[in-house]
User: Fold this.
Amino acid sequence: MVSEKVTSNDVARLAGVSQSAVSRFFTPGTSVSKRTAEKIKAAADELGYRPNVLARSLITGKSRIIGLVVAYLENYFYPDVVERLSRLLQDKGYHVLVFISSLAADKVEEITQEILDYQVDGIVLASANMSSELAARCHASGVPIVLFNRLQDDEKLSAVTSDNRGGGRMLALHLAETGRRRIAYIAGFEGASTQRDRERGFREGLDEAGQALFARDVGNFRYEEAQAAARRLFAAPEAERPDAVFVCNDHMAFAVMDVLRFELNLTIPGDVAVVGFDDVPPARWPSYNLTTIRQSVDDMVAETVATLLSAIEGDVSPARRVCLPGALVVRGSSQPAKPI
Amino acid sequence: MVSEKVTSNDVARLAGVSQSAVSRFFTPGTSVSKRTAEKIKAAADELGYRPNVLARSLITGKSRIIGLVVAYLENYFYPDVVERLSRLLQDKGYHVLVFISSLAADKVEEITQEILDYQVDGIVLASANMSSELAARCHASGVPIVLFNRLQDDEKLSAVTSDNRGGGRMLALHLAETGRRRIAYIAGFEGASTQRDRERGFREGLDEAGQALFARDVGNFRYEEAQAAARRLFAAPEAERPDAVFVCNDHMAFAVMDVLRFELNLTIPGDVAVVGFDDVPPARWPSYNLTTIRQSVDDMVAETVATLLSAIEGDVSPARRVCLPGALVVRGSSQPAKPI
DNA sequence: AACGGCTTTGCATACGTATGAAAGGCGAAG
DNA sequence: CTTCGCCTTTCATACGTATGCAAAGCCGTT
Assistant:
């Protein structure tokens, strides 16, 4: 607390101009004469002056802060999202205020209120659902929201997702085509739209291929629960075990692979094919070498930012729902092991 | 932009009291009579009023925002840090503004300026170094800084680290005790204190055990570069290859293990022992089952927050350097394979 | 009924900036 | 030399809140 804060008034005094001149100098899009600009610059440099963003926000009504709500970073899809989103927004002069939420809905409510307290210009909701009532309140406050990697019934909410249904379908067809006949599914958290859509697409794909789901269990997007689900699914006698598993995301797929290989001594893809969803970095590490659906974080983030910024800049068009295509990435965990 | 913002004045008018009364009602530690409290509460609820944190900051000089500078979330140690740090600070009424920095020092400078623009109450510097000059400026602004998981020469900076030197030593002794005789090291980014301290402790440990470092290469904390380093280290004829590698962090250790197993067909720990540092979640996944030093993220975060908050609350004591002990976690990647 | 102490309330101002309106400056055209 | 118009600059005010100070209210005591 040694130094006093230096304000635009201090600069103005030193430069021999008015405070407004200083303000104008630091506000892009306004003009000052070359002469005063130089005086102000010199004075500002000497004092180490920088405008107070908070005070500015108070009067402009724009904080240049984006609230990001995220429930867990354990799934390595999200750190990547946080990093790229921050970077992109930084480039555009915004910054990210992080709010970690639990999965519980009432927590989300509380958290969102806290976010609004900071007068954020926009909100990215990355791993939590939000009540329609809350969404309405945000909308009423004029704060745009973009759902990231999830959908909600509320038609008023913008959302960016990848094509979870299409991805699920591709995986089903891939497994069927490579000769799998007892295909199981390990679900994520049932409340998540990604879970629902992936499962739905997967079932549709199986249907197309003339198959039905052989078995199903739930892993709730957690490593340990996915391990447990795998143990249950493979507790049956050998002939009645699945010969393929679609695990709802890569993070859980790693857990399943570890159980199959190191607890049950099964080979992948020899005995069982495993496929996931997301294409997080470890999926391409040789230890896992996991067939999966690539969601382009870059594209998703870019769309999110575009949607958010256009809404912030006054675009009152109705909610924008972007669904980006995913790509099937075939790797070693699902090579055809049992040709028909 | 449908609704107008509701201010303390609106509430005051509706409740039939003064604006100061409303302010007092929402400021902890001040008192209002029960009667007016009720009127204000009713009015505030009706209007959906919540205090504007930014306006409050302007006058109190406290924003309750903590700036977090982090360079990359690719190493899964950091997502965990972000999550726990955010959670803990949230509980204390603070929030985290994230700044992603590149490793370049000038970027850090720029970023830190941006942080200061937001009038943050404190800064956590998690994966980037900062010039002493910049540190001085922050100090002058009265903004406390805590270095997380790194150290700097500047004695004025508080820092929280785990005992990197001691951890390196433990790993060296462990490898020597389990019979390894050609022990190599793959370094992280040379500019990082964690890299320096871990290597130093490791060399000291080898020395104690009467050994010298057999080979050394650099992986710069990146997966791909660590792969390349592993390839170089093991390009020698079989008898001249290392029989153990300490990789400066787990993230790179995974890359090394993948190269050894899947490119060179070596067994771990049979042909080569691999040990890492951090104990990130994948280290205990059976595929890697990596011997490593556990850094307790929880403890580190707790110390960081404690240091930061005490400084914010006016503690002018000199910089506080906390060094937390790490624990050797012996797993399958280093079991004694060649008993003496 | 008057007084003293304590709590509650309202008034006024301050925080650091942006911005509309008004005033000033300067050159060109007449 | 005057007048007009444009570009700069200043003045004044506003943003939404917290807080010192003085006024007002309350309650028990003498």
